[in-house]
Structures are given as structure tokens and as C-alpha cells.
Here is the input.
Amino acid sequence: MSSRPAPPTPHRTPSAEAAPPTEAKPSHFLRQIIEADLQAGTYASRRWGGSPGDAAHHAAGAPDPARIRTRFPPEPNGYLHIGHAKSICLNFGLARDYGGVCHLRFDDTNPEKEEQEYVDAIDAAVRWLGFDWQSGVAGPSDSHRYFASDYFDFMYRAAEYLVQAGHAYVDEQSAEAMRANRGDFNRPGLNSPDRSRSPAENLERLRQMRAGLHPDGAMVLRAKIDMASPNLNLRDPALYRIRRATHHRTGDAWCIYPMYTYAHPIEDALEQITHSICTLEFEDQRPFYDWLLERLAEGGLLQHPLPRQYEFARLNLTYVLTSKRKLAQLVSEGRVSGWDDPRLPTLAGLRRRGYTPSAIRLFAERIGASKSDSWIDYATLEGCLREDLEHSAPRAMAVLEPLKLVLQNWAELHGSPDATERCTLPALPHTPEGGDVALPPRQFLLGRELWIERDDFAAVPPKGYKRLHPPQADGGPGNRVRLKGAYVIECTGYRADANGHITEVHAVLLPGTKSGSPGADSVKAKAAITWVAAADAVPAEVRLYERLFNTAQPEAGGADFLQALNPDSLQTVQAWLEPTLAQAQPEQRFQFERHGYFVADRHDHSPARLVFNRIAALKDSWGK
Ligand code: ATP
Ligand code: MG
Here is the structure.
């Protein structure tokens, strides 16, 4: 049974009310956990200080208007990809569905790799996907966009507390000794000689670390837990390291930085996160997450109920890479044109490719959340795109590999070779009744010279070929096809150059067969072909994208993904388009009939230079 989202509550946000109705959402284990927590009132008594803060700050606040709090916590060290979209849709979607809020939190505790450019790109990607950190739960300007680096003071204060309480110590062992003494799955670790120092001695050293009295790497602050724990993450994990690096927000204020495993639980707690959802590889970190927050709650720095961590399977999608680091490599080595290359699974790349936010949200909804790793076929994502665009993308004709066709009886029928005739086709032929898209029909010309697809003609037709071919040596007639939206024509011959390359196809138009006229069906045609008239077609650059990798799992068995790069992943053609496309706006999407879905490139397309990207081919339904 699929469970419906909770009914509207007084906490429902204006934006949640404005959200379009969604299809029934499939339940999954995270929904069940949240529903059980809401039923049990696990978080009902929490208070919210109006901003992130410690126990005292929140205790002085009002009852939390958010029934749950989730967060999306990217590290600003690259552009977001489709895997992040899964996490964004999950976290923002759960908050929306259960009367909660979702925080956008930049996890910027690692100064070396983080940059403002990435912060801006992440903001843009989250907004583009249709989510918002302005929750409206506690008033119109209730913004939940946070930076972990704003918590550095608290994190340090917490570190001093842990030292004073005997839960942490400064270790001066070398990195190698520390590694060797950690043990492994078969061997318990060995206590550091520094482990038995008094809290006062440790506090003095921690303060020296912070004051910059020691070089990088000279010592670290470690939790004092259990060097024999079967969970290696509990063998006195490092909490702080010395690193003289300029941080993109705090500059040189700090020369020590918290480790991710220490910082992350604290960030969640200061923000009163209820359900901290992360990927499965953090499962073994959960005991430390709980240990740390319990110790800080004992010290009165945090208050119960504490955040809880839940793990779900990360998205693995065939034919792409979902790792910022590896995507960064493709970008920095110039294998692609940039972070927004339409072949990349970054949200910037998918956007430029023409994917819609709603297709990506539909995809995230469909794949749901589970606790076991699996691979999702790229076709699932393409299917969501087609579903989204099928009833909304206006149709247009485009000839991608043009071959000239001359209607030999045109002048005779029209009195002049230059005469033209107006044709129309609906912009959206199959819009379901009650659909809200009402677009005027498309208008275009028919004339003596046309452009057709090169493979819609065969001088010697293969068996069963239904499109244009000339009369055959055995006396068989030239074939008849319908020019979509116009007349039936019959092929009479062709011209080829000295190499046998076909340069021109000849046909005659059969009068009285125009689409929509009473005689339209008087002559049978075996196929309909797409075309544009030389008189009004507009030229365009069309970028035909294929998969960036040749293999579904470019890294399977430890393979080097660079070896799997598809050298033909981009083919650029000069096409002729129906004139309606001259008005296309950047990012406007169309279905080029018989070819697939295309978008006007958001960077390069302009009225003076039309540039379209293929988003996805149509399902192959045209046969021979
Ligand atoms: P990457 O390895 O690509 O850098 P990451 O996990 O290190 O990914 P973060 O910026 O730390 O990147 O991720 C932010 C959030 O997105 C995390 O909560 C993480 O769990 C989630 N996330 C990242 N990749 C995926 C994925 N493939 N599927 C689902 N969630 C993901
Ligand atoms: Mg990471």
C-alpha cells in the first residue's frame, strides 16, 4: 500500500500549498520512520531558537513550528550531479510532505577544495530543481541556508568541553605511528602514549594548536573511546587537525579545522535536524555520531531529542559517473567542455542538455529510497523526460541530414516555379482533453524545392523499404509517400555525382491529396516523411549527443573510466528547420518529429544563430 503524505497541518507552508498536485507517492522505509516518529511524538516537544544554536539558544525559543527537520549538506567542492538530485528530492520532499523544513547546508569544513563558484552553482541547482530554503513555516522570511563554517566557534568550544570531560586528548604520534597503532579488522589497536595525559595537559595543547604554536600535522585532537573496538571508527577517531589554509569564508581565522565525522553530527544538532539522511557508506559512522552527540548532551551543550542518522543507498546510474571528484577530472582534463557540458550528469549539464526539473523529480520519486545498493538504468531517466515532454513540447519538423528534393510538376501546377503554398500542423497533436497547453498551429510553406532526410531516399531500396525510391529497372513504379502535413508525392528519379553520391531527388506531387482536404486519402501512401521547404527553412546547428561512456559501468572491476570514453559522444550537424523554430527561446524544448526531443541551447542559441541540443531520441517507433 502506498501511504499518502500527512494531511495538511497548521504548519503547512505557503509554498507547499502552491506545489502542484503530485502523484501518489510510493512509501519507503524513510517515510515509515518519519510517520512512526510523528505518531509517537518523538520530536513534538522540541523548541527552535529561530536559528541554529546550542541547547540554551533553542531552550529559549518557541516550540518548533517544523514537525521534522531534514537537511541537504553538500560540500562546495564541485557541481551537483544526478546522485545529489536524489538526495535533494528526498530531503526537501520529505520535509514538504510532513510539514517540516529542509535546510540547505554547505558542509564547508575542508578549506582546500571549497570555492564560492561552487556555492553559487549549488544554490542555482537546488532552485532549478524547484526547491527552496525559504520555508515559510515560521513566517515569510524564514530562511534555512546555512554554512557549517559558521559553527566553527561552537565546534571548538565542544572540543574543549570533550577534553575537560576526559573524552578527548591531543595525540602527538606521527601519522604513520597513528595508522600502525590503529590496528585492523583482525588486530585491536594500541593506545597512544599520549592517551593518558590529564585533561589539563590536553587542554593546554589544544589551545596551543588553535593559537598556531605547532606546525601542520604535528598533532591531532582525538576522541577517547576504545582502541580495541571492533568498529574501527570508534578507535579514537581524529576530531581536529592543524591545517594552515585559507578558508573561502573564514579566511585565516583558523589554523585548525574539524574532521568531517566530528563536524557533521554537530552541524545536525545545532540545526535541530530530526532525520539526518545520508548514504550507506556512513553506516559504520553512526555509532560515533551517537557517541559524540550524547557526550555533548551530557555536558549540557546540546539538548535531547538528538538528531538520528539514517542511511539509504546512493544512486548508481549506468553510463555516467556520479562522483564530483571524477567529474572534476573530466572537466579539468578538458575531456568535456565544462561542468555544464550536456553529456555530464551534473545538474548544470542535464539542464543544458534540456532535462526538465519535473522529469528529474519524477525520476527521484520513481527510484525511491532503499537500503540496498543497485544500479538504475539510464533509460529510466530518459523515460521520465519523455513522459514529461510528450504532452508539453511543441512539435516541429527538422531535417538533420538534408537531401534536396525537387517537385518536378510544381511550376506546371502553380503557374510559377517560385510559387509557395501555406501548410499547417498542430503544435501539440495529442494533447489530452482538458490539457492546459493551447498553442496556435504551426504555419510553414511548401514550394518546389524541399529538404528531406537523406535516409528517406534509397536509389536501390532494401527489401520492405517504404520511403522514397525511384522506378526500378524491373519496371516497378517509383514509391509514393506523404509529405507530412502536405501532399502525397511519387518519386520519379534522382541525380548523383561522379562518385555515385546522391545530390537531388525528383518527384511529382499528386494534386488533390493535401492533408486535411476531402481527397487526402484518395491515394495510398506507404509512409509519411518529414521535410522543410527551401523557401522558408532556417539553418541551425544541431548537437547530437550520445552517451559519454561506451560501457554501462565505466569503472567496473577497477577499470580506468577514461578508457571507456565514447569518442563519438558529440556529433554536430548543420540542419534545416521549420521556420517556427526561428522564434525559439533559449531553454525552450521541442519534439523534432521522428528525431526526438531537442532544446535551444541556453548559452549558444540566439535569433542570429540557432543552436539546438538533442535531449533524447524518441522511442524507436518508425521502423523501416
Ligand atoms: P561526491 O562523491 O560526488 O562528491 P559526496 O557525497 O561526497 O558526493 P557531498 O557534497 O558530500 O558529495 O554530498 C551531499 C549529499 O548528497 C550527501 O548527503 C550525500 O549523501 C548525497 N549524495 C551524494 N552522492 C549521492 C548519490 N550518488 N546518491 C544519493 N545521494 C548522494
Ligand atoms: Mg563527500
